[in-house]
Design brief:
5-stranded mixed beta sheet; 28% strand
Amino acid sequence: MQYGRRCVSAQPVTDLGLGEARVEQVASNRRIMGPDGKVRAVRYTKTTDASLRAEPEGTIDPMISLISFWNGNKPIAVLSYYATHPQSYYRTGIPNPDFPGVARFLRQLAVPSALHVHFNGAGGNIGAGKYNDGSHENRRILAERLADGMRRAWDATKREPLSPNRVGWTVEPVSLPVSKDLDEAKLQEQLKSRDARFMAVGGPSKLAWVQRSREGRQIDVTCLKLGRARVLHLPGELFVEYQLNAKAERPDLFVAMAAYGDYGPWYIGTGRGLRPGWI
């Protein structure tokens, strides 16, 4: 398609579909608290310790949100939003979409006329660790559980007319504080020395974040308005509390969140989560 020419595959959107459902036995909080109010153990996405898997799910958002676009009675696209680290087993050297990608593919087969796109929500402190010991078989199990939640959200979808005056964007440039642990001079030295660990843990991106922040460059936080739905697009690996709070602030609206939009700031915890002993 040349610039300025109308895309021949474009279709009109007449209706918006909104649905949600609870996803069972996928997400769990990565931080297990002790009686002193501090983290006593971390339950990563792959958790081989059975005693940690036996701990409660903790604070999560169990709901998957589905937003669909329709041309008459034909679904054109389905967007899904769910908060968790999207991993089952990893570091195999082979790129793959892991269990959310498998779930998305299963739903693509079930509703083939629509494009299916999945977004990770505020899952910085959320993983599948309670339900995943790293066995390769668990990828399919987790995928089927997530796909089941997608199916039930699809079945619960309610449609409403969507017109141009019910669509809008809100953009808010923000400046995020740089962690006191990030020293630009030290990061520069590590980069010059080609320190292997520095490279492995994302040192160059941390240096880039410090430099862009020093230059006063901001991040755009955006909100897409679609009828009575609001889709928040936020940076970094947000703790799930941000997603839960956003939904609680507007119970009159259908709120979904896509995080990880700009990975410069890495993890974005709550004030409570950033106190010593919490990370």
